[in-house]
């Protein structure tokens, strides 16, 4: 299919309306046959649970054009698993086996003209979400739901592209109450909006959240997990059950070990040891791996030796290998790449 006439290289991380979106509705205990719609607007009752009590969960994955022109997605089975875990926490119905990947395939295929070409620096961001749609005024879950997927072509998440970013240590927590920090729910992100705007106004790209209980351990940022490289070349990422279990992070640990022969470990990381790290990056579907140059801890600056100009050498190797796998330049582990 002929691609849309877009300057792919100049795209940032924004919304652009594409031709089709997917919808399945849940009523009387079952999901309907999915359909593809052309109307990007959603019309719901004013009292829908999603509006009143933010009963909504979402996922994020990308579709890539490979070097040989195929369209692929990266480990969508893990997004399928995670959206069900998120839905269960918000008392929403889960999706039956196979439904999520089938829906992703349908909507990406229908929008294949919007999947940015290989080498353009852009990708098609795929945003599945489930929301409670019937009127609810007492505090309780909805009985009716919509599972939707929208797609939009995107460029880099942080404005400098691959340039290292600056973040600050936050005084607030990202997680919503009830241990829901490790799911992707609308409310978690709404609760972080004040803090992200405040960070941007003060010149920081993101917030570093600490564990809410002791405020001594590194958790994650508003939209990505952390990855550090120690001075002796080991890849370490925070172990915590209140951060989002990033698919990118889990994949990078395996890439570090199996492709790069590095030691890689998930463990508790104290803010106190961060100053001794050689490299720092934020990892996620949107962030890919965005290098962090500097962390501001209440006025005290932690600068990484890799500096503010470019990615550190191990971060760069991880980035090249991961994107190489996603774009079909490097052979992927079994099951990681799902062709559309
Ligand atoms: N942490 C948060 C809070 C996120 O929103 C995201 C983005 O999805 C991630 C981490 C990274 O997760 P993944 O690599 O699965 O995209
Ligand atoms: C993602 O990386 O998919 C995210 O959801 C991050 C952010 C856009 C919320």
Q: Quick summary of this structure?
A:
Helices cover 22% and strands 27% of the residues. The chain is an alpha+beta fold.
Task: Summarize the topology.
Blueprint: E1 21-27, E2 30-31, E3 35-37, H1 49-53, E4 56-58, E5 61-65, E6 71-74, H2 76-89, H3 99-110, E7 123-132, E8 145-154, E9 165-169, H4 186-190, H5 193-201, E10 206-208, E11 225-230, E12 235-238, H6 247-258, E13 264-267, H7 271-274, E14 277-284, E15 288-297, E16 300-303, H8 313-326, E17 337-339
Parallel strand pairs: 9-10, 9-15, 12-13
Antiparallel strand pairs: 1-2, 1-3, 1-8, 4-7, 5-6, 5-7, 6-17, 7-8, 11-12, 11-14, 14-15, 15-16
The structure holds pyridoxal-5'-phosphate and 2-OXO-4-methylpentanoic acid.
Pyridoxal-5'-phosphate is lined by residues 60, 220, 223-225, 244, 246-249, 284-286.
Main attributes of the structure:
8 helices; eight-stranded mixed beta sheet; 17 strands; binds pyridoxal-5'-phosphate; alpha+beta; 340 residues; nine-stranded antiparallel beta sheet; binds 2-OXO-4-methylpentanoic acid
Structure description:
- The chain is of the alpha+beta class and 340 residues long.
- It is 22% helix and 27% strand.
- The strands form two sheets. Strands 1, 2, 3, 4, 5, 6, 7, 8 and 17 form a nine-stranded antiparallel sheet that branches.
- The structure holds pyridoxal-5'-phosphate and 2-OXO-4-methylpentanoic acid.
- Pyridoxal-5'-phosphate binds next to α6.
- Pyridoxal-5'-phosphate (PLP) binds at residues 60, 220, 223-225, 244, 246-249, 284-286.
